[in-house]
């Protein structure tokens, strides 16, 4: 038992924090918001230069090994800058293929996903019908769906791969509140689908996705606190820095209390999955719900504590607030995850 | 990062569990699961001595002073198994978890030899003399005075909220030793025997009906000149370091008590059907999540603690657990309904959950109120400007 980063993990954390702080600037994120929500240059340099896109995928499958703790470290750093990259797609689809794909599927897709040549998106798709290996139906709310080359869809008892270029697949993109990860509706009409091994694919997709979102939320929440602390020591009113007023500093303290719990949640869940602990599901549902709520709360405080400037388009506060909003509703909202926690602790409601 | 325990640690767990469960099923079954600190005092003093006799009293201490030099993992395991076995809350927790570690950190070899065996041996119960009628949140405003007379400190003043003083053998007192000094300067940290004519203890009845804490009057109370921990006039540093120990491993044992309380809420909800109510399920889930995050937060801060002590994140722990427990108490009463407002017998005495509900109103006050905690987090954790001070 040693619930602290190893030297290697601390090094990865420092590397990715520096990478995203230097490259995922507000200017570039805003440019990406006008271009479908992905900074392709940033994603290419993340995949090619850092060599961390294969995290959580075994070396024999073309990944770099390591696990969910390292994935969380990366997602936390990416989230702290609201980076416009398809990390969630990789964390969900990549994990699903690695865990539930056959050799041919892994060979075809994992390489391009890890190198950044292909972008993946994944979604829960209970309405899809399969007939003779062909999928039909509509899948709403697919994050980064309009820029994806590959889709992973998870139904109630099956999971599939579908290539974006398939003639039976069409995508309608939507103007979305969080422009760094816009949602699309995917319609399938007899699309060619390759089945994944359902149970392991779904489990890996959930673990990768929930940890990615929870860690992004942690990084984002910490950034809202850091930036607001900075502002509160510079901004003067009544002849004092506003951060010296209790009404102000107590709210910042409350943010730190939540964020430290969120940090425990993310790394508890990541460790529990990596170690195959029996409490992994409890940890994942806890982390997703708690971190998403924490981020939303903190981003809301950031706006309020910045006053008028915090409500402007020019200031970055709304980027955090909107990302937090999307993380809250994505891959199961807080009430749903807490009901799963209740099922695990109390049992089914009768 | 690793959460699992090694085979060696699991062997330690088996040994600890075996011993603890044997005790709770045998000689000490009459004190299983007592959560408060004021009932069956004599039996629980015997339990302290039994722990000590088998070297389970202070496992994290050096072997030289009656401990086992236990690793962090072993201390975590012991706290878990202690609660799992239903062993009662430690009646000498102030000695074992606060006074002892502070003496280990600041005491001279002679002081260690004088005080530690009594704590590790379970024969001397300790209490804490910090708060005064005008030194609560403003703790540095201590007025209790100490001056040297020959080879003795002579101490006069009043302490309040002194938990367990009515059956303690020793008290550590923060007193103003430097005449004319103000605030955190000029205080000294004294270790005093309770059994002397200069000390009078009057119990204070709390809102839950129990009397766990007291007023402690010192009227020319005495202790030897060398019963001072740290340097003369530098007692504030010692007093604050002690509060750091309060956020250390001792939190793990406390969490196991919380686990029992949450389990009791879940049990009550199952029994009366509230467990099917979606709103109640959400609240129980939040409590479950909060308790787990407390556990992993404690493991994280302990794993990250270097020689210099706990990091800034540890500052958030007090308000976190205190608020969690107050919420749990409210949830317990929601689950119990009006049945929770009726005592079992004629006496004004409360079973576990109603008592948690009432007692937890103190959790957000003692050891630094939630408001003071927020000041500490903001000023020390986030580096915000200090609150302007008045001239008192």
What does this 3D model show about the protein?
The complex is a heterodimer of chains A (350) and B (392). Chain A contains eleven helices and ten strands. The mean pLDDT of chain A is 97. Chain A has a four-stranded mixed sheet, covered by helices on one side. The two termini of chain A are 38 Å apart. The radius of gyration of chain A is 20 Å and the shape is globular. Chain A has helices at 7-23, 26-33, 40-50, 68-80, 87-100, 103-115, 198-234, 246-274, 280-306, 317-329, 334-345, and strands spanning 120-124, 129-131, 134-143, 150-154, 159-163, 169-173, 183-192, 194-196, 236-237, 240-241. Chain A has a domain at 200-345: Butyryl-CoA Dehydrogenase, subunit A, domain 3 (Up-down Bundle). Chain A has 350 residues and is of the alpha+beta class. With 392 residues, chain B is an alpha+beta fold. Chain B folds into three domains: 7-91, Acyl-CoA dehydrogenase/oxidase, N-terminal domain (Butyryl-Coa Dehydrogenase, subunit A, domain 1, Orthogonal Bundle), CATH 1.10.540; 126-231, Butyryl-CoA Dehydrogenase, subunit A, domain 2; 247-381, Up-down Bundle (Butyryl-CoA Dehydrogenase, subunit A, domain 3), CATH 1.20.140. In chain B, the strands form two sheets. A four-stranded mixed sheet of chain B has the order 1-4-5-8. In chain B, helix 1 (7-25) runs parallel beside helix 3 and helix 4 packs across helix 6. At the A-B interface, helix 7, strand 10, helix 8, helix 9 and helix 11 of A face helix 3, helix 7, helix 8 and helix 11 of B. Chain B: Keywords: FAD, Flavoprotein, Oxidoreductase. Chain B: Residues 127-209 form the Acyl-CoA oxidase/dehydrogenase middle domain. Chain B: This is Acyl-CoA dehydrogenase. Chain B: Belongs to the acyl-CoA dehydrogenase family. Chain B: It holds the Pfam family Acyl-CoA_dh_1. Chain A: Residues 6-117 form the Acyl-CoA dehydrogenase/oxidase N-terminal domain.
């Amino acid at each position: 038992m040693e619930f602290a980063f190893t030297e290697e993990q601390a090094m990865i954390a420092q590397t990715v924090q520096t990478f995203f702080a230097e490259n995922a600037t507000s200017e570039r994120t805003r440019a990406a918001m006008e271009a479908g929500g992905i900074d392709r240059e940033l994603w290419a340099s993340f995949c090619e230069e850092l060599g961390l896109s294969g995290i959580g995928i075994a070396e024999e499958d073309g990944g770099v090994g390591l696990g969910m703790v390292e994935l969380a470290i990366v997602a936390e750093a990416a989230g702290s800058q609201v980076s416009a990259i398809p990390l969630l797609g990789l964390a969900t689809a990549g994990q699903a293929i690695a865990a539930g794909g056959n050799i041919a599927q892994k060979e075809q897709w994992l390489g391009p996903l890890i190198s950044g040549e292909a972008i993946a998106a994944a979604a829960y798709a209970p309405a899809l019908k399969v007939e003779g290996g062909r999928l039909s139906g509509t899948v709403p709310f697919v994050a980064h769906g309009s820029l994806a080359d590959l889709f992973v869809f998870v139904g109630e008892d099956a999971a599939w791969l579908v290539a974006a270029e398939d003639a039976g697949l069409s995508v309608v993109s939507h103007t979305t509140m969080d422009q760094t990860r816009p949602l699309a509706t995917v319609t399938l009409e007899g699309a060619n689908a390759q089945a994944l091994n359902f149970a392991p694919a779904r489990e890996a997709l959930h673990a990768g996705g929930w940890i990615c979102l929870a860690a992004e939320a942690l990084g984002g929440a910490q950034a809202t606190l850091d930036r607001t602390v900075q502002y509160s020591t510079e901004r003067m009113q009544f002849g004092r820095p506003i951060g010296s007023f209790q009404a102000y500093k107590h709210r910042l303290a409350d943010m730190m209390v939540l964020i430290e719990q969120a940090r425990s949640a993310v790394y508890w869940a990541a460790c529990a999955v990596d170690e195959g602990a029996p409490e992994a599901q409890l940890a994942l549902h806890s982390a997703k719900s708690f971190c998403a709520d924490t981020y939303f709360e903190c981003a809301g405080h950031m706006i309020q504590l910045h006053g008028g400037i915090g409500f402007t388009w020019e200031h970055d506060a709304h980027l955090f607030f909107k990302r937090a909003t999307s993380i809250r509703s994505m891959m199961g909202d807080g009430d749903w995850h807490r009901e799963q926690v209740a099922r695990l602790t109390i049992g089914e409601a009768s | 990062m690793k959460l699992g325990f090694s085979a060696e640690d699991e062997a330690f767990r088996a040994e600890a569990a075996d011993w603890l469960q044997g005790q709770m099923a045998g000689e000490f079954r009459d004190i299983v699961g007592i959560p408060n600190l004021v009932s069956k005092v004599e039996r629980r003093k015997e339990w302290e001595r039994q722990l000590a006799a088998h070297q389970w009293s202070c496992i994290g201490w050096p072997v030289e002073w009656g401990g086992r030099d236990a690793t962090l993992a072993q201390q975590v395991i012991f706290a878990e198994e202690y609660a799992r076995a239903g062993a009662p809350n430690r009646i000498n927790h102030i000695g074992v978890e606060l006074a002892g570690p502070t003496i280990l950190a600041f005491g001279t070899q002679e002081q260690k030899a004088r005080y530690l065996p009594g704590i590790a041996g379970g024969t001397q119960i300790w209490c804490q003399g910090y708060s005064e009628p005008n030194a609560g949140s403003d703790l540095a405003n201590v007025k209790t005075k100490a001056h040297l007379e020959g080879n003795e400190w002579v101490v006069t003043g009043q302490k309040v909220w002194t938990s367990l003083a009515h059956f303690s053998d020793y008290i550590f007192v923060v007193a103003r030793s430097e005449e004319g000094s103000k605030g955190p300067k000029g205080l000294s940290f004294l270790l005093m025997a309770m059994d002397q004519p200069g000390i009078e203890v009057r119990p204070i009845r709390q809102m839950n009906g129990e009397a766990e804490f007291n007023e402690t009057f010192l009227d020319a109370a005495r202790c030897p000149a060398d019963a001072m921990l740290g340097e003369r006039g530098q007692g504030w540093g010692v007093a604050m370091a002690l509060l750091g120990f309060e956020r250390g491993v001792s939190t793990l044992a406390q969490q196991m008590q919380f686990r029992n309380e949450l389990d009791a809420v879940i049990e009550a909800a199952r029994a009366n059907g509230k467990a099917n109510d979606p709103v109640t399920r959400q609240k129980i889930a939040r409590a479950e999540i909060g308790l787990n995050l407390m556990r992993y937060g404690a493991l994280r801060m302990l794993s990250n603690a270097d020689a210099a002590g706990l990091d800034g994140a540890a500052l958030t722990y007090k308000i976190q657990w205190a608020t969690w427990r107050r919420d749990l108490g409210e949830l317990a009463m929601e689950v119990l309904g009006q049945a929770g407002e009726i005592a079992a017998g004629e006496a004004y005495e409360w079973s576990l959950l109603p008592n948690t509900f009432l007692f937890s109103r103190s959790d957000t006050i003692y050891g630094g109120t939630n408001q003071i905690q927020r000041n500490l987090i903001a000023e020390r954790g986030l580096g915000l400007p200090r609150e302007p001070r008045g001239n008192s």
